[in-house]
Task: structure prediction
Amino acid sequence: MNNLTAVAVTALLIGAGSAFAAPRQVTLTVPTMDCATCPVTIKVALLKVPGVSRAIVSYAHRNAKVTFDDGKTNVAALTKATDDAGYPSFLADKK
Ligand SMILES: [Cu+2]
Result:
């Protein structure tokens, strides 16, 4: 019974935590991609940033759509991650 209560409390805490976390999506322009494997490198770099849940990188559009928890990371950390991977990027939209 105590274990069950602990599990229930933990579930509530996790639920409350995710209620406060606001998932945010931004588009980063990455102008220097020059071949089809560049997006893979960029995606891996972005997904390593704590708080990033999704990264869709398009070579055709030279951009990266990134979904992240803005309680854990921010746009500056995302652009730094692509910079560090060799691809400078900047925010394409202000949403
Ligand atoms: Cu490349």
